[in-house]
Amino acid sequence: MCEKCGCSSRPPLPRAAVPHRHAHPGGAGHVHAGDPAAALLAANERHAAENRGFLRARGCFALNLRAFASSRAAELVRRLEADHGAELGLRTIDAARLDALGASHGHGDAPAAGDLGVPAMDAHMIGHALDRLDWAGCRLVVIANAGSAVCQAVYDLGETARATVFSVHEGERKPLKTPLIFENADLVLVNEMDDAAACGFDRAAALANIRQVAPTADVIETAPATGAGLPALRDWLIRHSAPPDTRHPLPKQGASK
Hints:
By secondary structure, this protein is an alpha/beta fold. It has one domain (60-243): 3-Layer(aba) Sandwich (Rossmann fold), CATH 3.40.50.300. The protein contains 10 helices and 6 strands, in the order ααβαβααβαβααβαβα. Helix 3 crosses helix 10 (230-241).
């Protein structure tokens, strides 16, 4: 997309500009137009809209998989690829693959994961990755997001749906501590459920906390080590990536809605 966005001459991103949202009583959270990050967010939204059209034209479903550093989301994605990748027509975009595809920003302004100044992944990067992706048989793209929870929550990548992953090791109060990354999720994945008993994870409290901040999200409990929950995640992806006129409800599984 270089010829479209002019990124070869794009100036460095403003590391001091931290995008943030805040809520007014009775209103939704938003970013003020005068905030230092407003122009960056506006440019990102333009790239996201282009990505969304690009994916729609190919009939491809894209899941923005947002995760905390300790969620072990990478293991979950690897297990999904190994068990169901061929069936799903799955391609994954993560930090390593962005580098391999040459899709990172590439002029000294690419942030490290966790840098609060700019997102570790933005729609501009993802657009370059989509241009270079192997599309043969691809029906599903999973974007294994990285960076701060704030940036992952705020930056639209052009995805079709959003998922948020957290581990039982992070505790059942995680959705209440960092609600922004949960509140617009279509799917919440509670990972490493095979360790729940060992770390004293309160499953009922966790589900209640998820419902408090993401009342419409589906919930699936997963364990990459054992493969538990992976069939339910596969079914969720199949159902949501199907053409609208062929979708049908799936039987309830585990904590899935």
